[in-house]
Amino acid sequence: MTDVTPTAAxxxxxxxxxxxxxxxxxxxxxxxxxxxxxxxxxxxxxLTATAIGLVALVMSWLMxxxxxxxxxxxxxxxxxxxxxxxxxxxxxxxxxxxxxxxGGFGNYLIPLMVGARDMVFPYVNMLSYWVYLLAVLVLxxxxxxxxxxxxxxxxxxxPQAILSGTPGQEWGIVLMLISLILFIIGFTMGGLxxxxxxxxxxxxxxxxxxxxxxxxxxxVATILALLAFPALFVGCVMMLFDRLLxxxxxMPTILEFGERLQYGGGSPILFQHLFWFFGHPxxxxxxxxxxGIVSDLLATHARKCIFGYRMMVWAIVAIGALSFVVWAHxxxxxxxxPYFGFFFATTTLxxxxxxxxxxxxxxxxxxxxxxxxxxxxxxxxxxxxxFLNGGITGLFLGNVVVDVPLSDTMFVVAHFHMVxxxxxILVVFGAIYHWYPKMTGRMLHQGMxxxxxxxxxxxxYLIYFPMHYLGFLGVPRRYFELGETAFIxxxxxxxxxxxxxxxxxxGFAQMVFLFNLYWSRTRGxxxxxxxxxxxxxxxxxxxxPPGHGNFGPELPIVYRWAxxxxxxxxxxxxxxxxxxxxQVRTGGAALETEQKPA
Amino acid sequence: MQKPWExxxxxxGNLVRGREFSLPTVTVGLRLFLGVVTVLFALLVVSYFGRxxxxxxxxxxxxxxxxxxxxxxxxxxxxxxxxxxxxxxxHLVRVRDGxxxxxxxxxxxxxxxxxxxxxxxxxxxxxxxxxxxAFFYVLTGLHALHLLGGxxxxxxxxxxxxxxxxxxxxxxxxxxxxxxxxxLLLIWLVLFALLIFT
Lengths: 598, 198
Hints:
Helix content of chain A: 55-70%
Structural class of chain A: mainly alpha
Largest sheet of chain A: 2 strands, antiparallel
Oligomer: heterodimer
Distance between the termini of chain B: 51 Å
Number of strands of chain B: 0
């Protein structure tokens, strides 16, 4: 394939990105299974993540059935309940959201949006998916081993994670740790690709400050992940040693059923530090891509340039950096030095500054925009509101004095589900409604989409708002049943039943969404190449869905930033990034442009 | 400074660079990977110090073999450096010799590490006996795994050499291997110092 013809525009500098030699698949196997095309890998990642995510969704129904109607279902006992909460959390955070945002959206959008033919290391990219799939399979295998999967809670805190009172102590925890180690290895392979592709494979004219915010979000999130996952890796390796070889990295001297175990002297707190040094950035690994994507959705569907682009970029970078110095706010009740807590409370509150800045900018983007209430727009607005709600309860919990009484209550469950469950998943939905036409050439069904949005959005509030109140009452999280608890009124049980019904209804709406994905694939309305009149490069590909190599014989040249909507004087209400200045019509005449000499 | 919201068209001045660094893409990838490796070992070292503070820590006597192994790894790194210089100057034979010697010394290092483990086990320094022992095995093990990964890249480079690939194309592979080897040597020296002085 050739690059831009030198004569395309005389003032164009020679290409600095050399043409890559793409791997051209010849058989079905190399085209769709062992594919090295980032778009196929993205779909593989997305399908796998969705499949395992569905398992976690069903788990949440089972948990809710138990909480809403205790003593009713004989097929859920206490051990199974612990296994359900553990795997639900682990799968949703790591195997679904991380994999979907970075492996799915990252793979699909980065090369297209930066104007590259593919990722820079396609072979490693392919390996990344297969190692991820292996990690998922190992995780699934843990359902079928003696003792079942681990029930240690998604944080896997030692010592209880490897003591015999915890379900899955025999095999479950071992497979969980191995699966995480594999996931991290697979992710690292993918992550190197995403970062280096953004840095080294952008097309001509695509400066860093012309990148769509989606790419910025995924780019910074990947850097966070590359720096944070090693902490989880180290924690997993050491705990695997503790479990299999009987070392005492994390295991203190401990009695089990009156018998002294071989362990001694280890530090469970050390694991907590390692876990949360990964765990807190993980929140932003999920949130930053959502931030980026939602910025693009808002600008496109409000037909207005993003407000404060440069501020948005720096806010993403600042949030990313700050996310590494707040981890111990998850450990206020671990018996830490009060000054330590003070430090982490302060940094936690500081992180609210760039985050609030982003929220204001999103709202200001909508301000006096030509808002179109398309499905992506609805989900984006849903995200803004939900993220604000979840973020504000985060400020409560970031303060030591408020956190201590609320720690391990349903308030915490409500907070993190709002901020890193519902909010990012709303963006995932919005993004799917937005990019599905590019991926398949057809629009998703509007009616089913509206049903999906309203039930999910309103339903999520019916589920999680009451949970805050349960938390205030002192209802603890992770309890199989409350039984006769003096300080919890009976109305808490009624509220729990209500939440369960809401959760089941929201779950049903997701089935409608999945059906919509399947149905519209062949029966949806034809979308054409650029149904949303968007400016970014993925909508300017010659084929829809984009063919192998993404662009035609010539790579696009970028002349402007990603947010030229409603440019004063221009006839079109959007100017694609690759539209040369001399083609911009203003009442018949080319827009006057400023051309600086070299 | 470029203002992205102004509709300045792409001109030679702002029509920047498809790439942020003038280095080859693979080199950027390797450096990023080394960054990840650094974080990994840094966290291990921090955990090491954290765990050391507890009362039950009893340092183990490092086998003398480790000194020999360190020598092997230094020799290996030097041989890679020789190969690199030769690749830049176009001495194909010396590239081959350097790569072969480097690979052999790296293998010697790995075998030596394995023997050191066996010595320790024979003396009863099992991983479960003391956290110092456990850390020794984890640190040396992870370092060895990284070196094994390097040997895969080394094997591919040697295979290219044998296929008779032109030196100009080989140079980048040699450069990457050498950089990786030097870095793993550096990490080993840090780990070795840590093990000896604590």
